[in-house]
């Protein structure tokens, strides 16, 4: 355990927040979670992030760190042990590719869900976004077929992929997203399934299951 303490501004269902939460757990870093809602009047997010987005990591001393990818990189520099990024060049690049795909398909899925909620959705946009996710998943399947993660049991690529896919499962179960075929991934990609199956059994994933948030009229949140 490190003796530095942190606050993590996050939201119960946020896959980006969960990614950081998992990294903090994997590295054994003490922290306190603060739940927030970025678009509420009383939000804390606006005070700490120029992008008005969570997650935000607040170190005891020093500047807030915002954006999940930057937070994960920052934590890797500040708390290198245990490493979540391979040291050896090829394994490192492999991990960076997997992490980028895992993160981007989450963002594209978010755009797709917004689009299908529009009345009426633009079919051309839905098709394009669906194709991008399909492309991302097949690229990930190929990479996972030849995963060269070095000696690490769990790396940043695995965490990005699993937090994204488990988020899709959660938001479909909660009725936040319709069960779009492209987002119902389980059982369709052998190597991806294997990775997520392994990740969700880790204590860091078991302790950070996504949660629905209740929002009160003043925009304050409780879990
Ligand atoms: N690229 C950002 C995306 C974060 C993000 O989209 N967070 C959502 C909550 S899950 C948010 O704060 N949305 C409010 C907004 O975009 O204004 C990251 O990885 O941290």
Describe this structure in words.
The chain has 223 residues and is an alpha+beta fold. The chain folds into 2 domains: 6-82 and 209-222, Glutaredoxin (3-Layer(aba) Sandwich); 89-202, Up-down Bundle (Glutathione S-transferase Yfyf (Class Pi), Chain A, domain 2). 50% of the residues lie in helices and 9% in strands. The chain contains 8 helices and 6 strands, in the order βαβαββααααααββ. The strands form 2 sheets. The chain has a 4-stranded mixed beta sheet, covered by helices on one side. A two-stranded antiparallel ribbon has the order 5-6. Helix 1 links the parallel strand 1 (6-10) and strand 2. Helix 1 crosses helix 6. The two termini are 26 Å apart. The model has no long low-confidence stretch (mean pLDDT 93). The structure holds glutathione (GSH).
Distinct ligands, ions and cofactors found in the model? glutathione
Order of helices and strands: EHEHEEHHHHHHEE
Average pLDDT rating: 93
- The value of Rg in angstroms is 17 Å
Query: Largest sheet, described in full?
Result: 4 strands, mixed
Strand order of the largest sheet: 2-1-3-4
CATH architecture group name of the largest domain = Up-down Bundle
**End-to-end gap:** 26 Å
Beta-strand percentage range: 5-15%
- Category from helices, strands and their pairing: alpha+beta
Uncertain runs: none
CATH class of the largest domain equals Mainly Alpha
Q: How many domain units?
A: 2
| Outline type | globular
Helix content: 40-55%
């Amino acid at each position: 355990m490190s003796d530095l303490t942190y606050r993590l501004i996050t939201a119960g269902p946020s896959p980006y927040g969960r990614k950081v939460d998992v990294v903090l757990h994997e590295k054994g870093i003490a922290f306190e979670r603060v739940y927030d809602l970025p678009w509420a009047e009383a939000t804390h997010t606006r005070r700490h992030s120029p992008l008005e987005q969570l997650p935000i990591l607040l170190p005891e001393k020093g500047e807030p760190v915002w954006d999940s990818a930057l937070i994960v990189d920052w934590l890797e520099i500040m708390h290198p042990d245990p490493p979540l990024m391979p040291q050896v060049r090829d394994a490192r690049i492999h991990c960076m590719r997997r992490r980028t795909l895992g993160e981007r398909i989450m963002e594209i899925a978010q755009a797709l869900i917004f689009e299908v909620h529009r009345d009426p959705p633009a079919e051309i946009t839905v098709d394009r976004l669906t194709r991008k996710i399909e492309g991302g998943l097949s690229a990930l399947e190929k990479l996972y077929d030849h995963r060269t993660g070095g000696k690490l049991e769990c790396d940043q690529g695995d965490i990005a992929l699993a937090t994204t896919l488990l988020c899709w499962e959660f938001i479909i179960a909660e009725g936040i997203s319709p069960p779009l075929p492209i987002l119902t991934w389980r059982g369709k990609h052998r190597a991806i399934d294997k990775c997520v199956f392994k990740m969700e059994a880790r204590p860091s994933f078991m302790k950070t299951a996504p949660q629905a948030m209740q929002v009160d009229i003043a925009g304050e949140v409780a879990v």
